[in-house]
Amino acid sequence: MPKIRVWNDNTVPYEEEFGDNNIKILPGKFLDMEADEAIRFIGQYRQPELDGMGNQLVTSMKMLRKEIIEPLFDDGSGNYLRKATSDDFKCNVCGKICVDQEHLDGHINAKHLNDMADKREQTKRMEAINKTKR
Ligand SMILES: [Zn+2]
To answer: How far is the CA of 91 from the centre of ligand 1 (A)?
Structure first.
């Protein structure tokens, strides 16, 4: 099941060996890949090819961009590797899907604590945060 859409933002087709495959993406087009595969492919080092003047050939420029096409867990550093298996840990405010209760609590505390309607819940959460800081 595809999870990440890999776009080629270059003006020329992009071609690169990846594992046993030769991946080719036309300019301005995309390829859907498994999330972990897509991240490995985008992160794979490509030796720059130079012209006679020592400038990098545009065909060897890796101008790939990833687009998340399924809700994935964002660990905060741009990695989208794990997917929630159900809506059990879905944020009721913004719809973000979290991987577990701890992640959901952290998300709510970070993003929605100040505008929480339930003041008792808000106080409870603030006290819990202060407790862990001590
Ligand atoms: Zn939220």
So the answer is: 5
* pTM exceeds cut of 0.85: no
Rounded to the nearest whole angstrom, what is the distance from the C-alpha of residue 25 to the centroid of ligand 1?
Answer: 35
Centre of ligand 1 from the C-alpha of residue 113, in Å: 10
pLDDT in tens, 22-76: 999 999 999 988 888 998 999 999 989 999 999 999 999 999 998 877 655 555 6
Residue 78 falls in which region: left (phi positive, over 0), alpha (psi -120 to 50) or beta:
left
Q: Could you tell me which residues come within 8 angstroms of residue 47 by beta carbon, excluding any fewer than 6 positions away?
A: 60
Maximal C-alpha separation, the chain = 70
